[in-house]
Known about the structure:
CATH class of the largest domain: Alpha Beta
CATH superfamily of the largest domain: GAF domain
Number of helices: 7
Largest sheet: 5 strands, antiparallel
Strand order of the largest sheet: 2-1-5-4-3
Radius of gyration: 34 Å
CATH topology of the largest domain: Beta-Lactamase
Structural class: alpha+beta
CATH architecture of the largest domain: 2-Layer Sandwich
Shape: elongated
Number of domains: 2
Distance between the termini: 50 Å
Amino acid sequence: MAENSTESKFSIFWNKTVELFGSFGHLIALALIIIEFGKTNGTLTFWGIVIILVLALIANSFLFFSNRKTKKLLQDTLDRHEKEINDLNKSLAKAERYKKAYSQINNVFRDIHIALWENSNSCPLALTSFCNNLAHTFNDITGASCYVAIKMIEDDVKNPHGNIKDMKIVTIARDDVSATERKRKRRKLDHFIWENHDFNQIISKVRTGRNPQYFFSNDLVNELYYSNSSLKCFGMRHDEFSPSTPIEEKKRRWELEYSSTIVVPINTGQSASTPGQDFYGFLCIHSKTENIFDETIDAQILSGCADGLINILKKCYSEGNSLKPIL
Length: 327
C-alpha cells in the first residue's frame, strides 16, 4: 500500500515536471527561431528579442495555468460522476435487499400461521420465532445486528377504567439473542407506560390522529427528552437524563443495549383506550449501531408487521393461551 502511494506521488511529480519543462521548451524553441531569423535578416535587435520572449512567456504562462484550470474542472466532473455511479450502485444494492426482505417477511407470517394452526397452544414459541425471523430480516437489510421485542399492555383488573398510560407494559416475546442478553444483565422490575418516552408519544399521537404514529430514533443518546423504564434495571431513574445532561456524560453512563430504535403500535385503529381490544401494545426493533434505520421504509415495514400481528394476538388471547411476561 505504501509503495503504491509513493509511486502515485512520483507519477504526479513527474507529470507536473514534464508539463512545466515542456512549456519552457516551447519558449526555448521560439527563442532559437527568433535569433536565427535575426541573424539571417539582420533586422532584429537585442531588445526586440527580449520583448518578443517576454510576450511569449506571458502567453505561455496563460496557457499553462488555463490548462491546469481545465484539468481541475475535468477532474471535478469525473469525481462527481464517479460519486453518482457509486450512489446509484448503493441504491440498487439497497433495493435488492428490500426485495429479499419482503419475501422473508411473507415467510415469517406463513410460518407463524402454520405453527398456530398445527398447535393452538404454541403461541409463545410462535411469537419468539416471529421475533427471530424479523430480526434476521432486518440484519440483512441494515447489515447490523438488530433485535425485536413484542410488548403488551398488561390488563389491570384493579384499575379497569384507568388511564392507559398508568398501566404496565410487559414483554411477551423477544428474539433469542436479546433474550439471553437481557436475562444475563437485567433484573425483573415493573415497567409503566408513563415512564417511557416512546410509548407515551405513540399513544398521544394515536389518540389525536397525528402522524407519524410511531417512534423513530437513530441516535437515542442525543434525544433530549428520552426516558426509559429499563434504566431502572441499572440503578438509575427512568428519566435519569435531562435535556441539560452533557452528551459526553450521557454517552459514558449509557447502559441500554441499543442506540437506534423504531417502535410502532399494535392497535386496530385510531384508538388507544381499551387494552386487549383496541390497543394491544408495541412492536419494537433495536440496534446497538447508530444511524442504521431508514425512516421512510423501515418504519412502514415494521408498522405492516404490527398490523399482521393483531389477528395472531387475538387468536392467542381468545383461545385462552397464557402469554407470560418475560424479562
